[in-house]
Task: structure prediction
Amino acid sequence: MAVEANKKMNVPITKPTLGEEEARAPMASIASGWVTQGPKVAEFEKRVAAYVGARHGVATSSCTTGLHLALHAIGVGKGDEVIVPSLTFIASPNSILYTGADVVFCDVDKRTFNIDPSDVEHRITKRTKAIMPIDQIGLACDIDAINAMADKHGLEVVEDAAPAIGAPYKEAKVGGRAHQVVFSFHPRKVITTGEGGMITTSDDELATRLRTLRQHAMSVSDVARHQADRVIIEEYPEIGFNYRMNDIQASIGIVQMNRLDDLLAARRARAERYNAELPAIRGLQVPYVPSYGAPHTYQSYMVTLTTDRPIDREELMTRLLQRGIATRRGIMASHLERTYTSRYGTVSLPVTEEVARTTMLIPLYATMTEDEQTYVIDALREELGSA
Ligand SMILES: Cc1ncc(COP(=O)(O)O)c(C=O)c1O
Result:
C-alpha cells in the first residue's frame, strides 16, 4: 500500500513483541510469593535448552553476567588471554576483563561480520585460554571451524550468542554446538525477559558448577532449602555471584519462547523485503548470507554504506531522524574505546574499523507494518537516490 505523500511517521529502531499473555504470565509467581529464582526459571531453562539442542540451560541476570560466569567457571583469570572479535558490543570484551584476563582482539570476515578463523590462529599464545566468537546481529558464526581450532590448541570456546536465539546453523540451532553458549534476553533481542541471559551447555558437571556460582556459590539452592523437611545450614566454599534471573522474568520468557518461531518468521519476511528492495538504492549493500549453512535471523538489519553513497553516514542518520526514522550506527569497534586503548595502545584491525565506520542499523521488528517499512524504504531512496 502506498504511503500518503509528506506523511511523517515515527518508526523506532526496534520494538519488543509483548502482549496480554506476557502481562498476565507473572501473576502466578506474584500470587505464590515465589518471585526470585525458582520453578519458572527452571521451566524457562528447560524450554530454551530443548529448543537449542543442549542438555542444560543456566539462566542469568543478563548475557554480560552469563559471559563472565561462563569464563569464571572454566577458570579464566589473571595471566590468561581470551581472543574475541573487536566488532561487538563492548560487553563481550568487558566480560573478559572482569575475570582479570587480558583481551586479545581479532578481526572479522568482511562479509559475515563474524570472527575470521584465519585471523585467530596467529594470535594464539601460551597464555591463550579461550576463544569467544560472536553470532553477530543474529547470524551464526562458523562454530565448527572455531571448535576445530580450539581443539587443536587445547582451548576453551565460550560463544557469545547474545543476538542469536533461534539462529540456524547446519540443520541445528546456535546453542548446542559449543561448550558454553550465552544468550541475551534484552529487549533489543528477538525475545525478551526485560533483562536476562542464559548459558547453554551439554556438560553436566559444568552446569552444576554454573548454577552454584550464579547463586553466591551456596552449597544448597534456595528451592532445595525451601522444600527440605530438615534444617540445612548452607556453606560458601568459594566466592560466587548473584547473577540470578527471577521467576517474574522467566514467566515472561516462557510465553516469549512459545512465540519465538513466529517472531523469527515475521522478522525474516520483513528483512527479505529489504533484501529485495534496497539494492535498487544508491550506496546501500544488504546483508550477506554465508555458504556454511547459516540463514540470517536478522536480530538487527544492518546495511553497509558503499563508497558511492552521496552523503556520509551521520548526515544520513540525521536526515532520517528528522523524518521520524530511528537508526543506529552499525556494530562498534570495541578496541577503539578508551577502556582498551588505555590498556593495549593501538591495535590495527582494518576490516573491523571499516565495518564500524560504514554500517548502519535500520528499523526492523516483528510487528513492523507494511506502511512503516515502505516509509523507511522511500526515505532511503529519497535521501540516497536510485542505484
Ligand atoms: C554481542 C553481544 N554480547 C553481549 C551483549 C550484552 O547483553 P546483555 O545486555 O544481556 O548483557 C550484547 C547486547 O547487546 C551483545 O550484542
In short: The first strand starts at residue 56 and ends at 60. The two ends are 23 Å apart (CA to CA). The domain at 20-258 is CATH 3.40.640.10 (Aspartate Aminotransferase; domain 2).
